[in-house]
Specification:
This protein has helices at about 5-15, 45-55, 110-115, 135-140, 180-185, 200-215, 235-245, 270-290; strands spanning about 20-25, 35-40, 65, 70-75, 80-85, 95, 100-105, 120, 140-145, 145, 150-160, 165-170, 185-195, 195, 225, 250, 255, 265, 300. With about 300 residues, it is α+β, with helices and mostly antiparallel strands. It has 3 domains: about 5-90, Uridine Diphospho-n-acetylenolpyruvylglucosamine Reductase, domain 2; about 90-200, Uridine Diphospho-n-acetylenolpyruvylglucosamine Reductase, domain 3 (2-Layer Sandwich); about 220-300, Uridine Diphospho-n-acetylenolpyruvylglucosamine Reductase, domain 1 (Alpha-Beta Complex). The strands form 6 sheets. A 5-stranded antiparallel beta sheet has the order 6-7-13-11-12. The longest helix is centred in the C-terminal third of the chain and has 19 residues, at about 270-290.
Length: about 300
């Protein structure tokens, strides 16, 4: 990738956008590991994203759009392409009666706090989930019996060719940690949530209760990507891992959390290879013990 030439051409497309070179992806993911991305763009608008995609699709340069990086692990070799990061310019939130419209770069927790401010109920489950709301729509994020599919009314998405697509209701094809956005390689840019009017004190109490449960059960004091595996049918990943005697198991700086075995944490100096090696060790161990193949909930990015 000829960064200097590409940098100049991208800069000319939308000069008000931020364009960075050799960006450490550990600074843009919650696991805090990963090598450098050749280029990162922080766009100012949806039209800028469309311009960048139109340019990049006519080259052989890979690109991907990210939010808060809460569900991504970049390999130590980095990403020899362009990262389009949805930042502050694409994080506006509007409230109209019981409808919240949020740009995809806004954090899910912040949208939940806005719902609380306006006495809107239905998003309490999301108040402690890290990550952007765009990513939450894509993976149908959820916790404590709540999921995005319960509140998503409509989303504006962009495909790999830069076309804007609006999905309504059941068109999202939501299922457990899955949506049509994954199947069709779409990125959410904006979402409308339909909530219900509620009692502010009760909404606050529910959020407090769920966040207390998170603090009690989850290793929030270490960098992680949340639950590393999806819940297998009829069981729980954390229990299967614990049953294998893997609680606290370490490879380098990566560790199966001794607080919640469904989490793999960065104890401070982990490399992406440490994390990935531990993931594979855990998967192999669980499969040999139970015959169950754990499926990743996170996405590993970059060459092997």
């Amino acid at each position: 990738m000829h960064k200097n030439d590409i940098y100049s051409e991208l800069e000319a497309l939308c000069g008000s956008c931020t364009i960075l070179r050799d960006v450490p992806m550990k600074e843009h993911t919650t696991m805090k590991v990963g090598g450098k991305a050749a280029l990162m763009i922080i766009p100012e608008s949806i039209s800028c994203i469309q311009k960048f995609i139109a340019f990049l699709k006519n080259t052989e340069i890979p690109y991907m759009i990210i939010g808060n990086g809460s569900n991504l692990i970049f390999r130590d070799s980095g990403y020899n392409g362009v990262i389009i990061k949805l930042g502050a310019a694409l994080s506006a939130i509007e409230v109209n009666n019981n409808i919240i419209s949020a740009m995809a770069g806004s954090s899910l927790a912040h949208v939940a706090s806005v719902a609380l401010e306006h006495s809107l109920t239905g998003l309490e489950f999301a108040s402690g989930i890290p990550g952007s709301i765009g990513g939450a729509v894509c993976m149908n994020a959820g916790a404590y019996d709540g999921e995005m599919r319960q509140v998503v009314e409509e989303s504006l998405c962009i495909d790999k060719d830069g076309n804007l697509i609006t999905l309504k209701g059941n068109e999202h094809n939501f299922s457990y940690r899955h949506s049509r956005l994954q199947d069709d390689d779409l990125t959410c840019l904006q979402v409308k949530l339909r909530l219900e009017k509620g009692e502010k004190s009760l909404i606050q109490a529910k959020m407090n209760e769920l966040n207390a449960r998170r603090r009690e059960k989850q290793p929030l004091n270490f960098p992680s990507a949340g639950s590393i595996f999806k819940r297998p049918p009829g069981s729980f990943a954390g229990k299967l891992i614990d049953d294998c005697g893997l609680r606290g198991t370490k490879i380098g700086g990566a560790q199966v959390s001794d607080k919640h075995c469904g989490f793999i944490v960065n104890t401070g100096n982990a490399t992406a290879e440490d994390i990935i090696s531990l993931v594979e060790y855990v998967r192999d161990s669980v499969y040999k013990s139970s015959g169950i193949k754990l499926e990743l909930e996170v996405k590993i990015v970059g060459g092997s």
